[in-house]
Amino acid sequence: MKERTLKETIKISGIGVHTGRSSSVYLHPEENGGIRFIKEGTIIPAIIDSVVETDRGIVLSCEGRKIYTVEHLLSALFGCGIDHLAIEIKGDEVPALDGSAYPFISAFEEVGFSSLPNEKEKKYLEESYGVEGRGCFAFAQPQDTLTIQYIISYNHPLLSYQEYRYNGKSSFIKEIARARTYGLLSWKEQLQSRGYALAASEGNTLVYDGKGVMNTPRFPDEAVRHKVLDFLGDLYLVRPVSIGSYIIARGGHHLHIELLKQIKGSEY
User: Fold this and answer.
1) What is the pLDDT of residue 246?
2) CA 252, CA 231: separation in Å to the nearest integer?
3) Regarding the domain delimited by 2-119, which CATH topology (the fold level of the hierarchy) does it fall under?
4) Is 253 a catalytic residue?
5) What is the pTM of this model?
6) What would the 3-class secondary structure string for the chain be?
7) pLDDT of 18-50, one tens digit each?
8) Is the pLDDT of residue 268 over 60?
9) For the chain, what are the domain ranges?
């Protein structure tokens, strides 16, 4: 299978879910160089070594310039198999749009994709890895296909246990891309006091209150599907993606990145 990029430059604008400020991203087709962001002339590669924060989202940085909440866009790039792209950002945070990866994919499909000369590189896990603590864990082991088994559990009747298995053959666009970020209404005050979720709303977040869910879920298990979406975005920070079996329980970006650092570190 050939590497690919977009056929044309795309501009996507919106509000950052955490900062609450407007921003725009310009996605420019490239024939090489991988995935990289550009902010105020500084190139910030979309790689795990650029990650500087993992609380409530992935923050990439280089030379003091930061870009917030890149994971949904990266997940969309994974889902569409885009290997090379220069992403110019005007602002601090990737737009939240509807809280999922689907609006990015819709924009990609509107302009189409271009095949590139080089074949896609494949990489397989050759040993097992694991991180755990405080009732959370993430494990990876060799397998000839990419599978992700994800479990979440919260103190809420609709979120006490959700599990989803992504087998790599299922449709990313139909089964994962539309799953929105989620949160409990009880988290709102604490998060906003820390500078997070300043623009969170029912338009970009699946919101759970004490009685149930305040807006209409797209899937009965939308929350755990969104965790898979997040993990695939984080996984795309180490390219080519390490094919194997991943099992994650009560995870988040910090746990994802710790596991991926372990995998990446074993290559040297």
Assistant:
1) 98
2) 8
3) Ribosomal Protein S5; domain 2 (3.30.230)
4) yes
5) 0.96
6) CEEEEECCCEEEEEECCCCCCEEEEEEEECCCCCEEEEECCEEEECCHHHEEECCCCCEEEECCEEEECCHHHHHHHHHHCCCCEEEEEECCECCCCCCCCHHHHHHHHHHCEEEEEEECCCEECCCCEEEEECCEEEEEECCCCCEEEEEECCCCCCCCCEEEEECCCCCHHHHCCCCCCEEEHHHHHHHHHCCCCCCCCCCCCEEECCCCECCCCCCCCHHHHHHHHHHHHHHCCCCCCEECEEEEECCCHHHHHHHHHHHHHCCC
7) 999 999 999 999 999 999 999 999 999 999 999
8) no
9) 2-119, 123-265
223-252 average pLDDT score: 98
Of the residues 28, 253, 254, 256, which is catalytic?
A: 253
Domain 123-265: homologous superfamily in CATH: lpxc deacetylase, domain 2 (3.30.1700.10)
pLDDT in tens, 147-196: 999 999 999 999 999 999 999 877 899 999 999 999 999 888 888 999 88
Express as a percent the part of the chain with pLDDT over 70. 99
